[in-house]
Design goal:
The complex is a heterotrimer of chains A (377), B (407) and C (312). Chain A has 377 residues and is of the alpha+beta class. Chain A has 8 helices and 20 strands. Chain B is mostly helical and 407 residues long. The chains are: A alpha+beta (377), B mainly alpha (407), C mainly alpha (312).
């Protein structure tokens, strides 16, 4: 059981820098997820923790010890690979005991640990088979078993579920969650699937273009995304982004563009907005998740806060419906109750759940915190 | 067969001894590299390796039966120590332990290739500028000294004949013709057979197996067997011709008659034998290429209305090119360098020279006529010719590739 | 390719056949189907005929040798073309085994070849791994030089090698032969093995590293056992190259007791037709095992050759 600390990690291949000054603290017994699109550097980061990639700059600390120059075998880690990397010429049992045999553990101890892991993962009947004779899901279990028997300080998972089909992936996800509850060890888990990230992680680090964009609990990352990238990456379907300006016309801050004018509510404890500092309205991006958009048939009495839009496409998901809307030139996706009766071509009135509106600075792409902010008039 | 068991035991011991020596040499080499890759940072590194190299050099020179006096051995040891100092500094400040594993794994192979390919090539260059022949070889093997003669042998290569009758330029032309004809028939024959085999057929596996028999047979047996079939009296070809003629005398009046293949048409005989030998390799390579082309392309082309010939030209040819091009390159070089067929067919004492190409003339010049230095110069000239052709070929194929990509 | 057009015709006529009720179009369809089958059959017959013809050309010399080897002593030389000659006997086999040095020759070939192939494959197994997994300075140059080595004519290398062997006093010894042979197949073997190692996922070694081995340990424990097919191919390649070699042996070996079988065979064939039967018997004895091994392993051997050499 151990904590892992990354300090100022940088990775260079010849002229290209793929990781820039990454720092991250992973607490003891934490289930840390590194999530990001492919090629963002998350796997490289994990492989550096494992000792499979050289570190160009910075240091990695496992359990209080700097491990930069330790080979993988001396780091007391175990790793589960994307393609499982089971040794094809060994039986399942030999695969699982390989690391223990290398460490010259006594035979009965090896047998005990392999049996225990096989029990946990329910692969006892497979022990004598070779990896070729078992299914993808079973291989996955064996790969995890090979990691468990070692009793490492840290488990590293490199996209372990991406080679499984959807149903099996869901099952294994639950298995891994249970495993963490049972073993209670530090886990660093790399994935590109934000559903896995949200469901498994006790904390999530969202990685893009070689930087950690945001690290926090799943709730934090989902409810208060730190920038446009995180907002767009986490959550499915993707958050809607609308360009506009932020200004204050006397009744509090408002988001405005050619089709809408949305009041931005302030938390009760926030100071009332004051006179503008710069004077110019600020260019911002408004983010709103499809679930937080409401729609109703238009009525003549609709107030100015309702946005007129046209339905372009309707997708039935089962209990919900995706409405692809167009408001002026802005495209919006709203997920509404399946009972909603609108058809393509019809007009609707749309409004946002005001407390779930996110605002981002257009230039810096960073979140604009609404707490205690003063807005330009 | 008496003493067979003893001879067998003796030979095993001899070879085992040799393999043991090689293992020991590899162990010494790896130990040397290990120190240089992993211990370069230690304080003792530089003094230890430099002293060690000097001492090892001195000891081995004194122990070896060379009858060197201690003074000369000592100066050699100093040279060795200085060389080692340079190497050690290089390892300490430039290499710094990087790429230890790949270089240590490559080292035995590199040493082997250096000793048995690069050193002989350099020795060949040395030979070509000196005079080694039957009259000087005894002197050379005793003292290691040879008279320097400059470009004399290179001039002789172009001005005189390497064999008794055939001139250099004639050989060059014949070699080019030989290479061209053989490769052409190898590729076209191999292609034809591969296309035939690429259908869904019964007995396909059997056909394939039997078709590669000429390639699978030991070449010496294959060539000598084929040579027998060209025998003027008992060979299949002449026997068949004779029977045909006696059966249908009309054919004789058309000019069909037994031919003295080996003495009158040795070059043609060699070509036929070599083509027979080389077709299976090309067939197998091309068949592999054909099987890797997805049927979808043909389905799509058929729907687009392409005829069989159009499909061959627009799909098969371009898609097989990446497999075919390197095979043709290799095949060309192999054919150019092929001595086996020609030597086995015409190499007996008093054999004809009318089938010889450059490399077989080189072999005969060196080992039938014992003109060592002359052969060395001849070999270098041949190598340069081949090298020039290869460069031109590489440039040309790259050129066509870029045209291909632009399309 | 041929079939596609007919198939198209069939498809259109069958569509019509379904539309038409009176059966006339159905008849047309049956006709087209019949014509298609006939055409296909004719093609198949032609293809089989062509293949059989060439198979005969390929195999005939071997069959002839076999037939000669069975001829009785007084009719070795004849214009007889039948496969099993009248009065067939194994006399020639008996004579070649007991009246010549044939068994010595086989043994010489065997020991030289085994030693050569073992050395060659060991060196290639190590070097191929370095080329497959590491990007060290000289990586590309090395690979190019290995391929370029194919360009060096054998006769060119043979002269200096022979002089070196002579100066070391190794003429007429196994060692001289092993030295001369040992690296000739090395470049190609390195290519074959590199090509095979390239197909083994790197994550296997990484898993072994995490499990607790060194890099070289991962090579020994994981990569080598997984590469047995490729190692076998490389061994076979080295083995056949040395086993079938003639030109080097002719230069290095002059003592008839030290001959390899290729030299002995050439000697037997010689000019004297009286030995023709023994030559044939010896050829058959040597060829059958080689042929068997080659044909048995041809699938791997060929894929290895194309993998390492041609696709390179």
């Amino acid at each position: 059981m151990a904590s892992v600390t990354l300090r100022g990690i940088t990775k260079r291949y010849k002229d290209t820098e793929v990781l820039h000054d990454v720092s991250l603290d992973i607490a003891d017994r934490e289930f840390m997820i590194l999530v990001g699109p492919s090629g963002c550097g998350k796997s490289t980061l994990l492989r550096m923790v494992a000792g499979l990639e050289e570190i160009s700059e910075g240091e990695i600390v496992i359990d209080g010890k700097i491990v930069n120059h330790l080979p993988p075998r001396d780091r007391e880690i175990a790793m589960v690979f994307q393609d499982y990397a089971l040794y094809p010429h060994m039986s399942v049992e030999e695969n699982m005991s390989f690391g223990l045999r290398l460490r010259k553990l006594p035979k009965d101890e090896i047998a005990r640990r392999v049996g225990e892991a096989a029990n946990i993962l329910q692969i006892k009947p497979l022990l004598k088979r070779t990896p070729r004779q078992i299914s993808g899901g079973q291989r996955q279990r064996v790969a995890i078993g090979r990691a468990i028997v070692r009793k490492p300080k840290v488990f590293l998972f490199d996209e372990p579920l991406s080679n499984l089909d959807a149903k099996l992936r869901e099952e294994m996800r639950i298995e891994i969650a249970k495993l963490h509850q049972r073993l209670h060890t530090t886990i660093v888990y790399v994935t590109h699937d934000q559903v896995e990230a949200m469901t498994l992680g006790s904390r999530i680090a969202v990685v893009n273009v070689g930087r950690i964009q945001q690290a926090g609990t799943p709730e934090e990352v989902f409810c208060r995304p730190a920038n446009l990238f995180v907002a767009g990456f986490i959550g499915s379907p993707t958050m809607n982004f609308i360009d506009g300006t932020l200004l204050d016309e006397g009744d509090g801050p408002r988001f405005k563009n050619e089709v809408m004018s949305v009041r931005i509510p302030l938390p009760l404890d926030a100071q009332a907005p004051r006179a503008p500092e710069g004077g110019k309205p600020r260019s911002v991006v408004l983010g709103i998740r499809p679930d937080d958009i409401y729609a109703k048939p238009p009525e003549p009495a609709d107030g100015p806060d309702l946005i007129p839009a046209v339905i372009e496409v309707v997708e039935l998901l089962g209990h919900r419906k995706n409405l692809h809307l167009k408001a002026g030139e802005t495209k919006l996706l709203a997920t509404v109750d399946a009972a909603f009766a609108g058809k393509p071509g019809e007009k609707v009135s749309v409004w946002f759940n005001a407390s779930r509106v996110h605002l981002f600075d257009k230039d810096a792409q960073e979140r604009i915190s609404l707490e205690g902010r003063r807005f330009p008039r | 067969m008496t003493g067979g068991a003893g001879a067998i035991l003796g030979s095993i011991l001899q070879v085992g001894h040799f393999v043991g020596l090689i293992l020991a040499a590899v162990a010494v080499l790896e130990a040397y590299l290990y120190v240089h890759f992993f211990r370069y940072g230690r304080k003792w590194f530089l003094p230890a390796v430099i002293l060690g190299a000097g001492a090892a050099c001195f000891a081995s020179l004194m122990l070896a039966p060379l009858q060197l006096d201690a003074g000369r051995a000592a100066s050699a040891a100093v040279c060795a120590a200085m060389l080692e100092a340079a190497i050690a500094l290089f390892f300490k400040y430039v290499i710094r332990g990087r790429w230890a594993l790949p270089y240590m794994m490559l080292a035995p192979g590199i040493v082997g290739l250096t000793l048995l390919i690069i050193y002989p090539l350099l020795f060949e260059v040395y030979l070509s500028f000196h005079d080694l022949k039957l009259t000087t070889i005894l002197h050379w093997s005793r003292t290691g000294e040879l008279p320097f003669v400059g470009f004399k042998h290179f001039v002789k290569v172009f001005m005189s004949s390497p064999l008794s009758e055939v001139g250099f330029w004639q050989l060059v032309l014949r070699t080019l013709w030989w290479t061209f004809v053989n490769v052409l028939f190898h590729v076209s024959g191999g292609f034809a057979l591969a296309l035939l085999l690429h259908h869904k057929l019964k007995l396909k596996g059997l056909y394939r197996t039997l078709l590669i028999v000429p390639w699978a047979m030991p070449q010496v047996v294959a060539v000598l067997a084929m040579r027998g079939e060209f025998h003027s009296q008992y060979g299949f070809i002449n026997v068949a011709v004779e029977r045909l003629v006696s059966w249908m005398p009309l054919l004789a009046s058309l000019g069909l008659q037994p031919v003295q293949w080996l003495t009158q048409h040795p070059f043609l005989t060699c070509c036929i034998i070599n083509i027979w030998l080389g077709i299976p390799f090309m067939m197998v390579v091309i068949l592999g290429g054909l099987q890797s082309i997805s049927q979808h392309y043909y389905d799509a082309a058929a729907i687009d209305g392409a005829s069989a010939f159009q499909q061959f030209r627009m799909i098969t040819l371009p898609l097989i090119k990446p497999v075919l091009a390197p095979a043709v390159t290799l095949g060309t070089v192999w054919t150019f360098n092929n001595i086996n067929v020609i030597y086995l067919v015409t190499g007996q004492a008093g054999g004809t020279e009318d089938a010889d190409i450059l490399v077989s003339a080189l072999y005969k010049a060196a080992f039938t006529y014992y003109r060592y230095s002359y052969s060395a110069a001849f070999a270098i000239v041949i190598f340069l010719i081949l090298f020039a052709f290869s460069m031109a070929w590489l440039k040309w194929t790259r050129g066509t590739e870029s045209v291909y990509e632009r399309d | 390719m041929e079939n596609a057009n007919t198939a198209r015709a069939l498809a259109s006529s069958s569509a019509r056949g379904q539309r038409a009720e009176n059966g006339r179009a159905g008849e047309e369809y049956q006709k087209a189907l019949k014509a298609h089958h006939l055409k296909r059959k004719a093609w198949l017959v032609l293809i089989h005929a062509a293949l059989i013809a060439w198979v005969l050309v390929s195999v005939y010399p071997l069959l002839r040798i076999f037939s000669v080897s069975l001829r009785p002593g007084d009719r070795i030389v004849s214009t007889d073309l039948s496969l099993i000659p009248a009065g067939a006997s194994f006399l020639s086999y008996w004579k070649v085994l007991y009246e010549t040095n044939f068994l010595f020759w086989l043994w010489n070939s065997l020991i030289i070849t085994c030693a050569t192939a073992t050395i060659g494959v060991s060196l290639a197994a190590l070097a191929g791994y370095a080329f497959s997994r590491f990007k060290f300075p000289g990586h590309k140059t090395g690979l190019t030089l290995l391929l370029g080595n194919e360009m060096i004519p054998a006769a060119m290398l043979l002269l200096p090698l022979f002089l070196m062997i002579m100066k070391l006093g190794l003429v007429n010894t196994y060692l001289g032969m092993i030295i001369a042979y040992s690296v000739t197949s090395l470049p190609f073997s390195i290519w074959i093995l590199k090509g095979y190692y390239d197909t083994i996922p790197k994550s296997l070694e990484e898993a072994a590293l995490v499990d607790g081995t060194t890099r070289f340990g991962a090579f020994l424990r994981i990569i080598l056992p997984l590469s047995t097919p490729a190692l076998a191919i490389a061994f076979l390649f080295n083995f056949t190259q040395a086993w079938n070699e003639y030109l080097v042996a002719r230069v290095v070996l002059t003592d008839a007791r030290m001959y390899t079988w290729t030299l002995g065979l050439f000697e037997l064939q010689g000019q004297y037709l009286t030995q023709w039967g023994m030559f044939a018997a010896a050829s058959i004895l040597v060829t059958l095992p080689v042929l068997g091994v080659f044909l048995y392993s041809s699938k791997w051997l060929i894929s290895g050759l194309t993998l390492g050499g041609v696709k390179g």
